[in-house]
Fold these 2 entries.
Entry 1:
Amino acid sequence: MGTFYLTTAIDYSNGDPHLGHALEKVGADAIARYRRLRGDDVRFLMGMDEHSQSVIQAAARAKVTPREWVDRMAQTFADYWRRLECSNDDWIRTTEPRHVRGVVALLERIQQQRPDDLYVADYEGLYCTGCEEFKQPAQIANGHCIEHPTLELVRTKERNHFFRLSAYGQQLLERIRTGALRVEPEIRRNEVVRLLEDGLQDVSISRQRLPWGIPFPGDGEQTVYVWFDALINYLSATGFPEAGYERVWPADLHVIGKGITRFHCVIWPAMLLAARLELPREVWAHGYVQWEGTKMSKTAGTAVSLGTAIERHGADALRYFLLREVGFENDGNFTWERFDARYIADLADTFGNLVSRSLSMTVSYRDGVVPSSGPDGGDFERAAQKTLAAYGRAMDANDLQQGVALVIELATRANRYVEETAPWKLAKGKRDAELDAALANLIRTVARLVVLAAPFIPSKSEEAWNALGADRTLARVRLGDLANLNVTGWKVAKPPPLFPKPGTD
Ligand SMILES: [Zn+2]
């Protein structure tokens, strides 16, 4: 089995990260963790897009050099992603030498393979500094970029290098229709197909005399256009063009936001076709986090501080809420009321309560040693088996919202099992065999739930797993172990409260 290589979009270094960035990163992280759980050899890349024009402006405002500014921003972003428990094993910055090498090598490769695909021409258009691209009439409303209604479009005229994107429409349609390049979810695929059917125009891929950027190979007057530069990060992080990059490339999954599908599902694969390189296998475009019905973004001025959101109930709770309530497919709303409600109902009263009572009863009635179960777990065991299968299907399809909903659903079922079997009555009545079976069934499914929840709430799962006294670490458990998980003899301890309610300890 080869490497499962997944990436997130790289972010502009022009302001602190917000909840919109966080949704993408924790969603991709949940996929990476799930893939490791399946046993895949995962390579997970995140990083920073540092050549944008807005860097020059932001650095000037802060009275520092662009270099000092991007160093500071990269540190800020990396710190947030660490707080949110992102498990990326690489972090690329587009100002790094390895990336500059990759960009130059890709351009030279296109020049060799398809020399007619690169040419020089004059260009005039309306440029959005928020998107860092020239906008077409359909992307402009009331004289402003649709994505950035508060920014002024800049009329720009210059002589640029162009990429013959128009030559690739049919090939891309073919790849998407056959599934060789999967664009998900379906609503995004349909948008991309419509875009391709309308026909493509060539794109400018350089800027004149921009001091902050990668020099265009063979032209001292021009720098590589920031988007053309940025997309190549996915390839340069594999070590391209050095030998061995093919062990990682092509990417199995690019996770991006729905606003940049044109770059990732049209321009990027066309660049790769021109260079005769393999295309990514899948692009997943998630929706936006909305705050009172509007997109969360810096320029729209509606951002809620990410730090405040993390501090409210902890990093795991925020990860859970973003993926369970906002979701990873369509737009979803973030409100403090819903965050608090989900925290209490799902995490404290359902998941946390189940773990706590199951372990406590095992400690009280069996000195913490998990007894061996009877031959048949009945309905409860069948519900658990059904969840295991459904969870795998949902997560394989990147349906994170469904995957995590299944975890809470089974935890609810397990709490009901506690009520049905009433172990405290069995203990009082000295019905030992029934008590053994009830506790064994319960702990087995609690252990399964802790594993299934780990991609979403990694540190709380780790705490719960450690209290289970299992025969191996959580990192060594695989999804395939769960159906016949044997918990007999595990030595459980009373766990710390996983999700304390506000105002209590
Ligand atoms: Zn824009």
Note: Residues 128, 130-131, 145, 147-148 surround zinc ion (CB under 6 Å).
Entry 2:
Amino acid sequence: MANNKDNGTTYAVVGASGNTGRIVAEQLLASGKNVRAISRNADHLKALVDKGAEPFIASIEDKPALTKAFTGARAVYSMIPPNMAAVDRTSYIDKVGEALAGAIAEAHVPYVVNLSSMAANKDEQGFQGRMYEQEQRLNRLPDAINVVHLRPPMFMENFLASINAIKKAGVIAYPIKPDIAIPMIATQDIASEAARLLLDLNFSGKSAKTLLGQRDVSMAEAAKIIGRAINKDVRYVQVPYDEHIKTLVQAGIPLDVARTLTGLYRRMNEGTGIPLEKRTSENTTPTSFEQFAQKFAAIYNNGSSN
Ligand SMILES: NC(=O)c1ccc[n+]([C@@H]2O[C@H](COP(=O)([O-])OP(=O)(O)OC[C@H]3O[C@@H](n4cnc5c(N)ncnc54)[C@H](OP(=O)(O)O)[C@@H]3O)[C@@H](O)[C@H]2O)c1
């Protein structure tokens, strides 16, 4: 397959101030590429701009603005940012998904790496099913547009949301059973795979790639590893589904989003979740939970991993 890499290539990065987008942008910049970094907030982009990125302030819902951001780009790193505040999250995802796909088509971007989810499955209800729809939407783009969907499992960074509960009570609480083995991935591994694909540009057609993290980890094991890293006893507590929904709603998450998330955990417990691809060297990524726990400890202790 031809390698279409050329110098002076411009990349547009959606969610450039986020977990994955920031690292994608940094890795492209480090390889001498032009990066158009998209965010709603100039302050969030300051560190990337200092490294040479072109800031592009736009809302992900604004198709004309996205079209402008994507025009002239050889490739786009695309994602639908989480919006926990959206009352109707499925419509929000569809609206953003249409804006992204429409802008990619209008700007004739030849290459797209799309952050999807292992939960992107046609049989999934709620927003996980919508991630599948977004894959389909991008797959319907003209043949000249090559797309890879990255399908990662649960992010290790999700545990950062437990910092307050650990500080207050020494617990990590979810409805997931303590001992089931779950693939978990560090967001830097997703970003590195995205950056590799974006730099090589040797994919063609429409395809998907599952990423399973370094190994499967149970919630009880995750709590122990985090406890060791912060030098504190951290217990994992399995909470009832209804209690978890209540906690999420109290934290400002709309009820249907809370129910959808909790439904995913229920299916994990019941073994009826998405059938997993077998672990291979191709879908295994390098960062271990122990390494992530060092980053967790830095944020726990200092509020930042830098
Ligand atoms: N968490 C998991 O376990 C998991 C698992 C599988 C897949 N996923 C998927 O991963 C994706 C999240 O990736 P991530 O963690 O890298 O993202 P993230 O850290 O949550 O970052 C989201 C980015 O999007 C930007 N953004 C948010 N709303 C925007 C808007 N209206 N207009 C323009 N920009 C906006 C934010 O920038 P500003 O605030 O600077 O605008 C931020 O840079 C989601 O699609 C999720 O479904 C998550």
Note: Residues 10-154+185-210 form a domain with the Rossmann fold fold (CATH 3.40.50.720).
